[in-house]
Amino acid sequence: MTTIQTLPTGLDVAAIRDDFPILTRTVREGRPLVYLDSGATSQRPRQVLDAERAFLEQHNAAVHRGAHQLAEEATDDYESARARIATFVGADPAELVFVKNATEGINLVAYAMSNSSIRTGLGPESERFALGPGDEIVVTELEHHANLVPWQELCRRTGATLRWYSVTEDGRIDLDSLELSERTKVVAFAHQSNVLGSIAPVEELVRRAKAVGALTVLDACQSVPHMPVNLTALDVDFAAFSGHKMLGPSGVGVLYGRTELLEAMPPFLTGGSMIELVRMEGSSYAPPPQRFEAGVPMTSQAVGLGAAVDYLSAIGMERVQAHELELVKVALDTLREVPGVRIIGPDSLEDRGGAVSFVVDGVHAHDVGQVLDDRGLAVRVGHHCAWPLHRRFGIAATVRASFHVYTTPAEVAQLADGVRAARDFFGVS
Amino acid sequence: MKLEQMYQEIILDHYRSPHGAGLREPFDAETHHINPTCGDEVTLRVKLDDSGEKVEGVSHETLGCSISQASASVLTDLVVGQTVEEAFRIMASFQEMAQGRGKVVPDEDVLGDGVAFAGVAKYPARVKCALLGWMAFKDAVARVHDAAAQDEATSKGAQA
Questions:
Q1: Is A142 near chain B, with CB under 8 Å?
Q2: Which chain B positions have a beta carbon within 8 Å of A387's beta carbon?
Q3: Can you tell me the distance from the alpha carbon of B70 to that of B117, in angstroms, rounded to the nearest whole number?
Q4: Crossing angle of the two packed helices A409-425 and A365-374, in degrees rounded to 10
Q5: Min Cα–Cα distance to chain A from B159, Å
Q6: In terms of CB atoms within 10 Å, which of A49, A199, B59, B69 comes out highest?
Q7: Is A155 a catalytic residue?
Q8: What is the pLDDT of residues B33-84, one digit of tens each?
Q9: Are B11 and A364 in contact, with CB atoms under 8 Å apart?
Q10: What order do you get walking across the sheet with A355-360 strand by strand?
Q11: 8 Å CB contact of B2 and A364
């Protein structure tokens, strides 16, 4: 069993697993935990937990205010985390806004555009973010609700129209399904589908958006934690990702925006910290990223996320990606052998990442999940916050297995055994 | 094994051949309930007698897991032929058991096959599955009564 854990990618999974205390616990009457739900939230290594604790025990203070020593140290830690996370995604620190999670990051852009669309009391620089009737926002049919509902709401508020690329039978964005136009103002899409695992053709989508002058918004929740991502090289205008999916704490995420855009964009949340000058008659605002970080921000969480990117960088994201592809291969190869299993998404490793979703003929996803849980396997069941995508495939729910650096091929192989057991239990065989 | 505690044979039987499955005419009200966390759906029709006090028929179409389908089936058995008052009393008892985290001892005289769902109560994530059909039923009965009340108000208005 130990040999199988050392992969061709050179990842010492056994040593990595020692860093994750939760992986030693048992569930459901003493079964070893097999955690295959990292796409929902990942587990955290000791290094992240220690960084948070060390910050709170030694440096805790409100950042960007106060002149005492703790305030200085806390601010340094907070900004150091921002700088390291920026390096991790190939961006400048001033292009990174700390938010609660990716959902808040995407809403921040949508609300800034909403504010721009009201057009009162704003300078001409915000005009490029303004929307109105006749304008279009384009998304795709495979989006997580977090990259769909905020745009539906923005359309409702501004009178703009939502359009979308459809999804092909094998789980790819159908680039032939939609033509952008001069009225397209935003193109928002997931870098990697949280259900299908398919990776979007970012370069082509960005090229098309730029050709019509539309802004691009990348949901990078399932890419940044699992593969090397350079946001500057991808040339997107905005991107968002969550800390808790990349071995970091919950309650912290990142909105990336190109400098010239963040400088021109009006704020979403307002209040302390984000101001330049405040008078009773009105206020002016700080330059980004502070303009978008109203109030005392999350601090130990940001520090923890800094530790998480240090941890991932030390492993190397190329190796993380290779490891996960190996796991996808095991999942696809073993599940394919189980009668009645249908993979929803690409059944190959091409342009694909580590989320494997499937249905089992005659056994509802909930029931499959329950049988897996009984064997200690934690998977996600349901629509995974991508309801329209499930509807497109004519199904209510799927079983999803998703991975991270600590997942072993032996664990993934248990999936197929569990599905066989579910079929037996419900008398489908 | 815990799995058998949850999926008792009675539940699996109802799942394999659910009672009341397939939408039927006539009906007084139809409701459509969904479980937003998993996407499961139930469409349920209810037929009351002329007085609106007795449940004459329930039919449903359930797209969901074994628990939600079996629960809708058991619901049909338990409420058809009962007065609305009695049906709601049974529903309250079922709900109390389902939400009781496995600590509520169900009364078989009241719940019949419904007692099989006591094991589900130990799995908080599945309680909504067990209650999906029941909530649709409650809503459907309320709609029949609301419509009746409205008709009465309209006819009174017409007389005046």
A1: no
A2: 39
A3: 9
A4: 120
A5: 44
A6: B69
A7: no
A8: 999 887 889 999 999 999 999 999 999 999 999 999 999 999 999 999 999 9
A9: no
A10: A341-344, A355-360, A398-402, A380-382
A11: no
Q: Is the pLDDT of residue B160 over 70?
A: no
Question: CA A69 from chain center: how many Å?
Answer: 35
| Selected catalytic residue, list A240, A343, A379, A385 | A385
- Provide the 3-class DSSP secondary structure of residue A287: coil
Confidence of residue B1 (pLDDT cuts 50, 70, 90): low
Name A279's Cβ contacts closer than 8 Å, sequence gap at least 6.
Answer: none
**Averaged pLDDT, B9-26:** 95
Q: Does residue A200 contact residue A194 with C-beta atoms inside 8 Å?
A: no
Short-list B106, B107, B135, B138, CA closest to B122: B106
For residue B130, which amino acid is it? A
Q: Enumerate the residues of chain A whose CB falls inside 8 A of the CB of residue B39.
A: 382-383, 387, 390, 396-397
pTM of the entire predicted model: 0.94
Cα A197 from Cα A344, distance rounded (Å): 9
Sign of CA dihedral A123, A127, A133, A138: negative
Structure tokens at A206: 């960005």
Note every long-range contact of A25-30, with CB atoms under 8 Å and residues 24 or more positions apart, other chains counting.
Answer: A26/A376, A27/A373, A27/A376, A27/A378, A28/A373, A28/A374, A28/A375, A28/A376, A28/B2, A29/B2
> Which residue's structure tokens are 């509807």?
A391
Length of chain B in terms of residues written: 160
For residue A261, which phi and psi values (nearest 5 degrees)? Answer: -75, -45
Q: Which of residues 329-368 of A touch B (CB under 8 A)?
A: 364-367
